[in-house]
Amino acid sequence: MGESKHTLSNDVISDFPGKRARTLRFSLGAPRSAQVIGDGSRALFLRSDGPEDLATSLWISVFDEHGEHAEHLLADPRELLGGERREEIPAEERARRERAREGAEGIVSFSVDDAGDTVVFPLDGRLWAGRIGADADKVRIGEIPVSGGARIEARDLQPVLNPRISPDGTLVAYTTGRKMVVVPVNAGAQAKVVLDVDATVRPDTTVGLAEFVAGEEMDRYEGFWWSPDSDALLVERADESRETMWYISDPANPDHPAVGRRYPRALTDNAEVDLVALRLSRDSGPDGSIEIGVAASADVHWDQQEYEYLAALRWQQGNDPLALVQNRLQNKDRIVTIPLASALDSAGGEHDIEATVLLEHGSDTWIDLFAGCPCRTPRGELISAVSDERSDTNRLEIDGKAFTPAGWQLRELLDVDESGVLVVASQDPRSFDVVAFGFDGSVRRLNERPGVWTASRASSGMVLSGRDMDNARSVMTHSWVRGNEVFRATIGNHAAEAGFAPRVQFLQLGGDRLQAAVIRPSQGSRYEHAEKLPVLLKPYGGPGFQQVVYSQAMYLEAQWWADQGFIVLTADGHGTTGRGPSWDRAIFKNMAEVTLNDQIAALHALPEAVPEADLEHVAMIGWSYGGFLSALAVLRAPEAVHAACAGAPPTDWTLYDTHYTERYLGLDPQVYEDNSLLDDAAGLKRPLMLIHGFADDNVSVANTLRLSQALLAAGRDHTVLPLNGITHMTNDETVAENLLLAQRDFLYQALGMEG
């Protein structure tokens, strides 16, 4: 990939911070979250109306019998709510959106039955549904009134959280957090509470909700699962009473009480998670409605004392459910099957079910999770993911034998059918490719250009979506095969454009050939022909995430920084994904030293490729782990990095959550001290700005306050920028805009640059 160039006007670059903030990083108006349904000729997706419209609507992409394509609006949240007000988002739903990094409003998730005929979604804490017939442009969306009859008031059945339609399209299950509710889709039917938690006896127990670390670290947002036959549910029950109680306050409004919540802090207790299996009964009422009952229930057991994490669960047609469970250190896991069919059919009432171990894995460090795994092939073979040390490849195995080829680094399993598996995988770590690996040994890459891609597939249809280096806008393409004909259409994208293409050069730096991206000032910039320019290191640099990828959108902000007078360098060091298990695991118990050394190595190697880079004037900025690295750099490498802005930095890893932190640092308190910033405070010699949101429930503001306290105690000058009401997502337009400007001005002064 060569360097891209573009001439920018001063107005375009000066407007960037505000435009970026108003458009949620240029994401509003872009189609997303596609799901192909039915025979593949239809696909549901989400999209707001314009580049600054937060209200996301539900749409459908359709090919008719002649192959003609159309897009139809199914549900607009403003119309459903009467256009009088914005939706009221329940606290539990706000927490789920924070875990999923969801910044939009309106319809942000949906559930559809197996046939693709009925769709349901939550809005305003209420339940909505629509039938999708042959005329997609005539679909009517309506609220399903949730009524529990005389003994249960409607308010006791709210809010409606995470509704999921049964595979046969007749029932909807959802949770209120305390109650698991099932309601028939047909109008007028009464809801049934199928599982309840007595808040007076178990005040910190939820049902049907994924616990904090599941959503934040495992990418598991589901807390209950339908059986393929629509006659049973598996429900998570999480007792969080042993977790630490943390409080989030609003210092700018001292009359507002602090909000308490449980947080799984590293080296302390996790939530106790188990499963409850429910067999449902159905009776027809005199008016033709369906009355729901619970015919049998059972507590599901595995070795929870040794394997306390429920990482994944999959329930496929013709099979008992599969679950992936992990031990506390995540260096052992088990795939277990839960024999529900025989257990729930054999007896009524309440009894226990013991899970059966199918497969075990072990590691000297940790075992990664891969979305979509485990599952079964249509023939019943077990598909699982493994980090193969011999080939240094993350790959799929079938019934314990390696299946996907060595050198293809697995990222996610998307689908499996009779022909093979559909995955996201990489040969070049900068490209996330959608690849079909056939059971016949065939390999087909489905994206034409390198980029960051994903897909949804059903029957003979597919939606391919992602980004590449040709354009910052995302691309979503719907294709459908009928006989020998292939129909293809691009789904409309209404997102704003930055008005420029970043000037990116991809490099491999240093002895470890670190993947790096260099962004220079644009053509026409006052800095374009400068003989020397200060360097801005802009990493994430932490485990599990990459920034150096073939996606133009990743470098828009970097181009803005370059046109403020910097050579911008982003480098992916050890621990970032895409280069195999040994690369990932080089950071084990030594995150701080290894990840910082990689950034310094990339910096020192830079002048050979970029001679105008001035290593006498170097700054670093970053958020989250990137914020940790930025503060770490000026504390432990002040000779190389001369100023830093650290956003939401986890300065003390004992304040971060269990599943992430213990995976990399283990359980030895000394390892935590070695990777903490607090004991380095006395060594600060360079300008440091600490930035943190008081409402951050992921990286607590306590991290920044403790480092600031240590710096003050050591007599070290520093700057703290508190962001009241701001979460880890920096979810305020004004703050997001001005935060860039505040950091720029701080670095100008720190490095002695002209403003």
Automatic annotation (TrEMBL):
Residues 159-397 form the Dipeptidylpeptidase IV N-terminal domain. It comes from the Bacteria. One of its GO terms (biological process) is proteolysis. One of its GO terms (molecular function) is dipeptidyl-peptidase activity. Residues 556-753 form the Peptidase S9 prolyl oligopeptidase catalytic domain. Pfam families: DPPIV_N, Peptidase_S9. This is S9 family peptidase. It comes from Bifidobacterium crudilactis.
